Each structure stands twice: as structure tokens, then as C-alpha cells.
Amino acid sequence: MLAFSNPGPLFTDLYELTMAQAYFDNRMFDTAAFSLFIRDYPKNRSYFVAAGLEEALKHLEDYTFSHDELDYLKSIGLFTKYFLSYLKKFRFTGTVRAMPEGSIFFANEPVLEVSAPLIEAQILETFLINTIGMPTLIATKAARCIHATQGRPVIDFAARRTQGHDAAIKVARSAYIAGFTATSNVLAGKLYGIPVSGTMAHSYVTSFASETEAFAAYAKTYPDKAIFLIDTYDTLDGARHAAKVALEMKKQGHQLIGVRLDSGDMVVLSRQVRKILDDAGLPEVKIFASSGFDEYQIAGLIQQGAMIDAFGVGTRMGVSADAPYLDIVYKMVHFKGKDIRKLSPGKVNLPGEKQVFRKTDENSRFLGDIIGLKNEAFPDRMVALLKTVMENGRITEPSPSLDQIRNAFARSFLCLDDTYKSLDGAREYPVDVSEKLMEIPDNIKIG
Amino acid sequence: MLAFSNPGPLFTDLYELTMAQAYFDNRMFDTAAFSLFIRDYPKNRSYFVAAGLEEALKHLEDYTFSHDELDYLKSIGLFTKYFLSYLKKFRFTGTVRAMPEGSIFFANEPVLEVSAPLIEAQILETFLINTIGMPTLIATKAARCIHATQGRPVIDFAARRTQGHDAAIKVARSAYIAGFTATSNVLAGKLYGIPVSGTMAHSYVTSFASETEAFAAYAKTYPDKAIFLIDTYDTLDGARHAAKVALEMKKQGHQLIGVRLDSGDMVVLSRQVRKILDDAGLPEVKIFASSGFDEYQIAGLIQQGAMIDAFGVGTRMGVSADAPYLDIVYKMVHFKGKDIRKLSPGKVNLPGEKQVFRKTDENSRFLGDIIGLKNEAFPDRMVALLKTVMENGRITEPSPSLDQIRNAFARSFLCLDDTYKSLDGAREYPVDVSEKLMEIPDNIKIG
Fold first, then answer.
1. Which of A393, B19, B287, B395 could form a disulfide with A93 if both were Cys (CB 3.0 to 4.6 A apart)?
2. Among the partner residues B165, B207, B340, nearest to A166 by beta-carbon distance
3. B311-355, pLDDT tens digit by residue?
4. What are the strands, taking DSSP E only, across B9-69?
């Protein structure tokens, strides 16, 4: 499996190609612009964290139809030989403007815009929505977890219950961008250089004649890197067994890193386990906890005084369980020199190619955004968020490293006032639409 | 992209490998058995539809570590050269028993069991949970949609908002198993032979000078395969424009397949559109509808008298939005000749290698299941659901075709009484545990 495994151009909804055939038949090769944006906040959300751009651009540079793919398209009987010849030579030649990965953005703000000949711009719809949308969904959820942990380390444990294999590596990457410390997912570690971390499973403990024996065997193999899972039978007994083995390790010049709780009342248990460890003279042994956590539970545990030093967060982050999809869309905003909008109930969108301007104070703190037209001039102290990342179908500059993206997000997150980060998403960040954009007339075409 | 793109053995949680290192150091090569099952029903669920087995078995046959993968494992400094040599020669040599894809099963019933030397069985945990769990999650959600549509065709529109690229093709495959008619996902069409289907997007309509022109152009390209999207500006006007073009098509000996509604009040609009089409002498033109549907909305629309002939179902099915993960686990149940259980609060599991027996009546209708021991003998009229699908690490017989799986599910679904299919999951199907299984003593090991 590659870092960014290319699904190829057939990863698309059929209608992108049937529309393209109709455009082709009608010689519609004029330039169109499309805008990728999220129409509304899912439950409890009040910001988004952009992710997925590096992968999207890599595949765009290589968006070509193989013989095999063309043969399949031929076999379904919907495409003319002229159009199939066109696809054979197809490559993306357009311009892409986008917010860098790790950017914080808001509802209705374009996170990416494409300008290209109509067919080229149209057929990317399914691919771009998926490739940017899903990592953005997860980076956003992960950022909420980071906010909830108040500086405690968090590790991605989601691999097993993500929605598929590439979801798992995308989750690890998105969570790392948002500030997770490490991942349990070895493949993500290899592909992206994310630190990997792991302890033991219940099955490990049950495969030994006793819990103490299981811990001692693990300590022998990993004398300086061991974290014992202590809830297989009884958590407090588990803590005592762990302490016993930890003291033996100490005698031999080693140190138990921590114990892991994975079930039960985490507030009560973490305090009792802390006491057992402290009483045994092991204040340095940390308490890790995992157990179907999400940002809500983490915030609750910390508030109730749980003595947990680090969290493992899996399933609920990995599928963004409380909001498992985004209302992310890719809409035509400009074609043949005209700005375009559609008017379907509940689905009106802003016309025209755009730019997002962010007002900041002298400390770079975000004061509010304005969605304006692409070429609008705005006063100083406003940052234009969409950058040109692809021209003539080629990436204009190398992607930042994953750590650069992660650091950029961390800096931005500090610049977003904490009141906008509350887990109920109650306070909405101010996003205005520029006067120039408001003035665009409705090009309503009926008849 | 391949039909079943192999993520390789590094798609695993790190702890599977660190545990394996500890097992290796302690020469623990005895045979272990693990059971894959779902601990509890998610909200509103009352049955599950098994999927993902064909992919799991294919990768298991090829579960080997490449040089590249071993180099990475070496680089993280957690594994001895002896263990890395062991991994270099690793292949899975065990036995797998599983329910065929398309099987209907219930909470706590093993859908798959592995018996193999401890390390081999352990390190599959993450991989098997993900590879079986996610397709099962989606097939289950899709089956609920099929039940809700009461025989109307349903098309998978989920590709763009699934959680990643391979999620998209797994969703298409799982939905097809559950009875979906077609998919919009061209790649899934190519890889699995699923019929593909698609219409047009709003951007298609807005790229023409008028809606009528957009429809006419499409009809020219697809005179016998067109479905017009009619809600870009105003649905009723759209219906009138569609009717006008459809009458032109008729004059030339062609036929409009249908119109698609994608927003607004579907009950009211579908009836009004039906009337416009009927009044125009176009009773044969079908009404398709899509708009963030799931089983609940479909059931509601039908109940309220919406005149919809076929549904496009996307996002909410594709991420199983109301229940986006399963509590699916892989637990050691037998090791070194002893049956095993763990006792963590809320996580007690049934020990021993198992079989699931299903009582049926003379019409094959399901009467109830018994979870028993693998070799228990049960009277006639009971079907044993777990079959041996892999021995000595080799697949024992070719996988059924996707259509065979789909047909098998359709037959089974008829045998499950409708009272167990209600969308609120209120009626629980009877699953008992055999006396022999209940009699297994707790091998509780503390100390």
C-alpha cells in the first residue's frame, strides 16, 4: 500500500462521465470554476480543519485513464468512440487554489476552487469531495479531542474500526495533523512517519497462567517501554500486580512506563490506581486510559478529577461518530465568463470565484472572515486564505511535510479564541460576505 | 486499484506485534482460537448482515512481510533480529471457520473463528475486525434501506461522502449484497461487475443557457437512457421543461426514463410532478428521488404517499450515519487446550470454540439460534452457520460470486420474520446459549 494509493479516474460517480459526454457532444470546452465548501456545521461543530490536499493534488497530477479503464467504460455502452478517444488523452490542465492543510475554516468558505475547461473541472467532483472531505471530517473531530484533553497526550487507536483500510491511514494522518501524539497504526507509521505506540490486549493477558506472569514476561521483552493493561480480570488487582512487577523492574534498573485502564468507572478507578502506584513508591508510572472515548467523555473525566495522564482515542474519533459526514459540496460558480448559482430549496450557493479574507489582531488572533471575490483588494491585516497550489495541472510547490502541517495547525488553533472551541459549538465565528460578492446578480435561467 | 487492494500486514495495531514479540520470547507457539463477534446491537439494530469475508480470506492467503515492511519494523527498535527473522518467514497456517457473506446473524454470535498458533491468530486482530466489520456495518444499514423501500429499486449514491476511497467500493459491494440495484460508483462497477447508474448534476443544468436546453442536449446524447434532474431552479417548472423535452423525444421514437427530485418536500413535489407528467401523457416516465435519504426517511415518504418509483441513497447509508460503527471484537476463547474468557466490566465474553445453530420451520423461516460449542451435536432442522473456509492457511473453496452472495442474502432475508426487521429494532430475535457452553468453568487467573 502506498502513502497515497491512487484510486484512478474511475473513482467517480457515473454521472460525471455521462455529463462529460453530453458536454463533449455539445462542444462545451469553455472554462468553468467550481468551489468546494461545507454548507453547514454538523451538530456541535463550529469550525473545520482542512486536510487531504496533498493526496488530492498528487492524484490530480496523474489523472489519466488506462487502457483497462477505457475498456471498461467502452463496455458499459454509454460513451462514443470520439469521447473515449478524448478520455484517452485526458489530463487535468487547470488551476487549483486551496487552503493549506491544517487551516482552520468555516461553513460556506471555499476550502478549494478549481478553474479548468468544463469537462476537466466537472469530473473531479466525486474525487475531490471524498479526498478532501473525509480527512477534513476527521481532522476536525481530532482537533476537538485535542482541545478536550487540555494538553495531555492522545494516541490514535482507531485502526480497527475505521471505515476501511485507507480510512485507517487517513484517520491516523488527520489526527496527527490535529495534534495527536502517535498512532497505533503501524502502516500509518511507515507511510507518514507518524510515531507508533501500543501496549497489549486482553488476549495477551489471558494467554498466560496469571496476570503477574503476563506482565513479567512483557517487562522482560520491553524492560523500558512497557505499559501494562490492568483491567482483564479486576482493575485494582491488576494495578497491584503491575506495581509488583514494576518494583522488580526498578531493582534491575528499568522503569515501567505506565498502566492502561480500558473499562469501568474511570474517575474512581484512576484515582484508586494512582493511589496504589503512589503507595508502592511508583509515582513515575503513568496512567493511560482508553475505552470508547471521544471529546465529550474526555472533557467529562478531566472535569470530574480523573487522574489520567494520557488518552487512547479510537473508534468514535476514527469515524467521527457523533457527526460521521460533512455536508461538503462542489458547485459550479462560474462558466463562460458568467457567475453561476443554483436555487434548489436549502441549497442556494454563493456565485463567483472567491477568496477568503481573515481579519487578525496584532497577535494574529482571528477576528472574523470575509468571503469575497477572488480578485477583491482588502486592507492590510487581512490574510487571504486560498493559495494557488496547481497551475496547468502541475503542483506549483512541494507539499509541506506532515510535521510542518501539524505545527501550522497548532499555531492557528492558538489563534482561534477558545470560546469558538466549546464542544457544543454554541458560539459561531463571524463570517461575512463582501459587498462585491453580494452584488452579483442572479443569473437565473428558466424556460 | 484492485478489487481487493491488500493493505499488507502492517495494517495492524502496533500492540499485535509487540505482543507477538513477547510470545516469541516466551516460546508460546501453542494453538489459540479467537472469535470475531459483535457484542451488542447499535441503536435501532436487531440483526446483522455478514460481509467482507472474501477480501479477508484473500489477504490472509497472502499475509507475508516484504523486505520493505521488515526494514520499517526494524527501524522502530522494538523487535529483536530473531523475531524479525521469524516474521520474514511468516505465513498464516491456521483454520478459519466463518459464516458466508450475506448471512444474517445476531449479537454475540461468532461470525468468524480463527484457530492457529498463538502469534498467527493474534496478529490478525486489527485486520479482521476492520475487513469484516466495516462491510458488515454497511450491508446491515443497506438491508434496512431495502426493507424500507418495499420492493422499489434503490441505487447507491454514496461514493463522494464515504470515509475514503476503499470505503466507497466496499459500500457499493455491501449495498449490492443487501439488494441495491446499482451503484453510481464507476470503480465499483468495474471491480465487482455491479450495474452502474447515474443522471446529471445541478452543475450540468447551470452550464446551459436554460434548463430546457440542458435537458434537450442530454436527450440528444442519451435518447433512451436519460433521467433529468429537475430541481436546479424550481422543481415544478423543471418537471414542465422535462415533459416538453420528453414529448419531443417521443416524437422521435425515444423515451425519457425518468426525472429526479433532489430537494424540497418530496411528498408534495412527487405528487405534483407525477400529475404534470401524467397530464402531459407521460405516465411511463418514472420519478427518482435522492436527498440525503436513509431508511427512516424512505419509510416515512412511502407511508405519507410520496409517488416515488426509485430511490438514490447516498451519504447516510454509506457511513451508516445513525450507527457509524459496530462493537465488533476479536477475543481469545481457547488457548493451550483451555477455554478462556475475560471479565472486564461490561466486556465478559463466551469461552470456547463455537458453532451457531439455527432452528428453522418447514419453510426455512428462522425460529431462533443457539450458540453452542464447535462440536456439539444438535437435532435435525438446525443449520450450523459457521463453515470451514480456510485450512492450513489456504482457502478451501472458491468464493461464491457477488450475485450468488446477493441471492443468498435475499433468500435469507425472506426467512427472517418482518417483525424482526422493524426500523426501531424493537423485537429481539431469540438467541440462546447451549447448556454445554454454559457449563464451561471460569478459568479465572488472578495473582
1. A393
2. B165
3. 999 999 999 999 999 999 999 999 999 988 766 666 667 899 999
4. 31-38, 48-49
